[in-house]
Specification:
By secondary structure, the protein is mostly helical. The chain folds into 3 domains: 77 residues; 134 residues, no CATH class; 77 residues, no CATH class. Helix content is 63%, strand content 1%. The protein is built from 14 helices and 2 strands. Strands 1-2 form a two-stranded parallel sheet. Helix 2 crosses helix 8 and helix 3 packs across helix 5. The radius of gyration is 20 Å and the shape is globular. It starts with 10 loop residues before the first helix and ends with a helix.
């Protein structure tokens, strides 16, 4: 086991990094609105990067939804960035919990282990179609939930699964359903205000959301092998089939601790701001951990092989 100090949460660091990301988002938005040409593009990119970084905190909150030190941060994020991207963290928590659970991780039951390396059609959908479709999907979901609550959303989901063979919803814990409903209504108010008061910026906001979702999906093939499903998984698989990228540009593609993905899968209870120190500790104390660390994105784009096999081969040679 690792030292308990790695699990300590610092709300001040959370607020600092979120406010910096929000400042990037708002600064880019103001720049893009007032500029043209190169400055407009620069403003758009800054806006996308800022919203992406701010939105990633939803992942942190999905891991610690009931953290007392983060209660103020929890609600601040939800009524600001969470309502802008229209995705309460509770919508993400249940599928992500399954993704981290030993036994279901990297199996067919893992909803976030997408075989984008071995399924070209799925790769095209996830990496090219999903960024454009997701903002429209969350608007649909927000409207449905705002009008009829979780009951209407669940009825539509049952109908789509039965007759169309796909799901239009994600499971939400019972304790969080009322929260998701009123947050959806607040998001809808934000959207109505945008369309009513600033209709000329609707297209730009959609483009920013597309850019932010594109950055999210681009990191999917960087974190796991994603070639085949296993029948089950062991605790060691969390290390052997997760990857950490030691590259300077990781701060853009995988912000807020995502680049330390191996350490995160081994100890998902560790807050993002302690992952760099945990990463160094695991490198120094667990030799096999180093097999999951790569120096460049090019290694991951080529497609790393399952780390457990490499480690077993090394053991056999010794």
């Amino acid at each position: 086991m690792i030292d308990k100090k790695f699990f300590a949460v610092s709300p001040g660091i959370y607020f600092r990094d979120l406010l910096i990301a929000m400042a990037m988002f708002l600064g880019g938005l103001i720049c893009a609105i007032q500029a043209s040409g190169v400055l407009f593009v620069a403003g758009y990119l800054l806006c996308v990067i800022g919203l992406h970084r701010a939105g990633i905190f939803g992942h942190e909150l999905a891991h610690r939804p009931n953290s007392k030190p983060l209660r103020v941060f929890y609600w601040f994020w939800h009524v600001t960035i969470g309502c802008i991207i229209m995705v309460p963290s509770a919508r993400f928590s249940q599928p992500h919990k399954i993704h981290h659970q030993t036994g279901t991780f990297r199996t067919e039951k893992d909803p976030q282990y997408l075989l984008v390396r071995s399924d070209p059609k799925l790769a095209v959908f996830v990496l090219l179609v999903l960024p454009f479709a997701t903002p429209l999907y969350v608007v649909f979901q927000t409207i449905i939930t705002s009008i009829g609550g979780m009951q209407l959303e669940e009825r539509i989901d049952r109908f789509s699964q039965k007759h169309l063979n796909f799901s239009t919803s994600t499971p939400v814990p019972d304790a969080k359903k009322n929260e998701v409903v009123w947050l959806s209504r607040l998001s809808l108010l934000y959207l109505i205000a945008l369309v009513w008061l600033l209709p000329q910026f609707v297209g730009f906001v959609y483009a920013v959301l597309v850019g932010a979702w594109l950055l999210i999906v681009l990191r999917i093939p960087l974190e796991h092998e994603l070639e085949i499903h296993a029948e089950t998984s062991s605790p060691d698989d969390q290390m052997y089939d997760s990857f950490t990228v030691e590259s300077p540009i990781a701060v853009i593609i995988q912000p807020i601790g995502f680049r330390y993905h191996t350490a995160h899968h081994m100890y998902p209870g560790v807050p993002y701001h302690n992952l760099p120190a945990l990463h160094q500790h695991l490198k120094a104390t667990i030799p096999a951990y180093n097999n999951s660390v790569v120096s460049s994105y090019w290694e991951l784009i080529k497609g790393p092989k399952y780390q457990k096999k490499q480690f077993q081969e090394q053991e056999q040679k010794v």
